[in-house]
Amino acid sequence: MDVYLPIANLAVNLLVIVGLGVLTGVLSGMFGVGGGFLTTPLLIFYGVPPTVAAASAASQVTGASVSGVIAHSRRGGVDYQMGGVMVVGGILGTGLGALLFNLFTALGQIDTLINILYVVLLGGIGAVMARDAWAELKAQRTGVALPARKRRHHPLVASLPLRWRFYRSGLYISPLAPLLLGVLTGILTMLMGIGGGFVLIPAMLYILGMSANVVVGTSLFQILFTTVATTLMHSVTTKAVDIVLAALLLLGSVTGAQLGARLALKIPAERLRLALAALVLLVALRMAIGLTYRPEALFTVAPL
Predict the structure, then answer these.
(1) 300 found inside a domain
(2) How many domains does the chain have?
């Protein structure tokens, strides 16, 4: 069954798009990430223009984050003060991201930029995740426990002025650190259509030094408002949000997330992380190949 995507100007198979939503939803439920970092590449592989894929995936992440924020809020797992600072930064970042998006669109390089960002970020983060997961599996097999990690913010964070107390996170740091982190996440969300969780969560743990029990909930809180701002910004500036595509993805991801959550209970956490790292690296490799191979048919645009 084909359905027409008005903004992408493309006819797609409805079941395939919903299936992609189910797949990213399953991954979201299994690994605790928003899934936006996989939705955009998969849509690009299917033939959806990168600009439309990035803009539409952000709106899907918005819907998927709502239930997560509610669940974490009920158990006290959201630092609203920290999240509020990062939301302000995220909104500022979407504005900067919109300027960059329009600049590279005018230069005709926005599709290339999106692909390069995915290759660099997915490749780097996938390698780190694979290293940590492999170390944990090796420690389990040998019986030698890994040294405990100390929860401490980065020295650069400690050097920033104007410190605040973030009681829920157990921190006494400058609000400039989470503000700048929010700005970076907003820029990436605008350019790549990601929720930012796979960048934000490690940064909150290892740079800000936040307590692990509030990291996921606070991340989802920031992602929720940042992706709303991103969707609105795309609608006003780039006009690349395809509401039909976003609705089909959301339909699939809501169902898939429930399945993924059930599967996560049956698989050890270390194997889950190793599987996610392998998947991330495969996507990065596929996008890198797409940037380098010569297409069969070459086209040029010449002035009349």
Answers:
(1) no
(2) 1
